[in-house]
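Predict structure. Input: EGF-like domain-containing protein, 365 residues.
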Amino acid sequence: MFLVFTCSMFIIWPSLLLEAVGSQGGHDIYRPPQTVRQHLFVMEEFRYLNVSRIGSYTVNDSIDCAFKCLSHTSCFSVNLAASRGMDGKFWCELLSSDKYRNSTELLGKKSSHHFVIKSPCSSSPCKNEGTCVPSYKYGIFECLCKKGFIGDFCEKGFKSCKDAYNSYKSNASELVTLHFGSNTTSVLCQMGDFGCGDGGWTPVMKIDGNKNTFRFSSGYWTDKSEYNPSGGMTGFDSQEAKLSTYWNTPFSKVCLGMKVNGQMNFTLITSQASSLHSLIADGQYRATSLGRYKWIALTDSRVELQLNCNQEGFNTMANRRARVGILGNNEDNCHTCDSAIGFGVDNRGCGGLSSIRAMCYILVQ
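Output follows.
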């Protein structure tokens, strides 16, 4: 690598001899010509990179400074004096890093110019404030994405808590900004296994069974409008919410949770869809197969679910209805059901048709 650079320098640098383009305090002012930017080094005029130095030298000209950097395998950039000193020379600092790894340390300074070895990062390929880390040896780069972005060029914003979990590899729940086209929403991503399995879980709805905001006939089940989106940032509390994740987030798993008398229980439905809205808004019945005992386990021992019918899923509809739930009957049919457990049950937001009122949560992954 050093030999290749040396050959390049002999070809390039003779055209980069110092030019006196003005004077300041009796000293010549050096402004490197355009060929620096076109070939081996990229110039940041009147800038100074404040990182660890490999060494400091006085040099006759820019060629000497460049050769000193290229002779050190750990040198990635240099700070060079913008004007000659009293001895007629320039000070030259060899640096162990570059502006791509330390963008916040590139400072304005009238007494120096900063030069970095030209790399794939010179074209600023990383989007959304991603940090470009070049490999000078192989002529490639890696983008280190700012929190909330993924992709080879940090070009993609998180669309779900699953994206955040896969990026952070952490079970600590945290506030994440999700990107849906030009729109964003902030949610508290529930990470890890709290009852539905490991991974990142995206909140979709929070329903208070003591209210009728999300009863079966509510337009919130069929439209694409939010309700109290700030409730998506507060976890498993008593704030009702419907988030834009209801119609924007694809999934293969649905996590259902109910809180009764301070006790939270969860169960998992395996179902793949482009969004929860796509499963519910058209009113079509879509069966699930949890079984009555898993639905009962969501609530508490006081819940009533009669033995027969057991129609369950999305948009269960007989004489009783639930957006997500199960129907029960004493008779061996589904025409005269007197019991149900679920979300959006007839005129109740969540819980059972008996006296059970639950605070309910829907998340997807």
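The longest helix spans residues 2-12.
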